[in-house]
Amino acid sequence: MIERIETGERSSKIVKHNGVAYLTGQVAVGDTIQEQVQVCLDKIDALLIKAGSSREKMLRVTIWLADMKDFAGLNEVWNAWVPAGHAPARACGEAKLARAELKVEFIVDAACD
What we know:
Layout: E1 2-7, E2 12-17, E3 20-23, H1 33-50, E4 58-65, H2 71-81, E5 89-94, E6 104-111
Helix pairs in contact: 1-2
């Protein structure tokens, strides 16, 4: 069974299938990479809870940066957020994001109930 949560015209915030929750990409506005990352991670926390999951159950995270010069700032916030011993598989690359003010986008897959 496939369960879709908060489905809109273009996407669902969460799609659950076979014990995995797939979260839609998360972006945020803010003046610095650290601000944008923190807001994104707060949004991810809320979606994980709604999906019956948590940070400890993340399987894979894909991170897109508008500019790789922000890699250190991303990791500064990320490293404090990820639970010790529960780091997911992770990829990070550079991509042109949907709007000029966006510095980062996160895509998360997590095990769920």
